[in-house]
Amino acid sequence: MIFGCESYYGASLRGAYIHLSQLTPMEERKVGYYDLRMDILKKQNVMYLGRPEHGVWFHLFTTSL
What phi-psi label fits residue 57: left (phi over 0), alpha (psi between -120 and 50 degrees) or beta? Predict the structure, then answer.
């Protein structure tokens, strides 16, 4: 299970690196984008659970010294 953006896994899966949506996760489900992602990734044995965040465009991971 991964809770992260497509830049971490998108290059490993055909068709996975298409996530440029500016819709909220709820709007994506309403317009059918969620179902599209499910179909694309299901063909590669990946279960897409959805995008849990919206509006967070950058994460900075650090270690404390």
Answer: alpha
Give the model confidence (pLDDT) of 18-49 as tens digits. 666 778 888 989 999 889 888 888 888 888 88
Instruction: Decide: pTM greater than 0.70.
Output: no
CA 29 – CA 23 distance, rounded (Å): 10
Neighbours of 47 (CB within 10 A): 8
Give me the numbers of helices (H) and strands (E) for the chain, helices first please: 3, 0
Domain ranges across the chain: 1-65
Judge residue 28's burial from the number of C-beta atoms within 10 Å of its C-beta, 0-12 exposed, 13-18 middle, 19 or more buried.
Answer: buried
Confirm if 38 and 28 have CB atoms less than 8 A apart: no
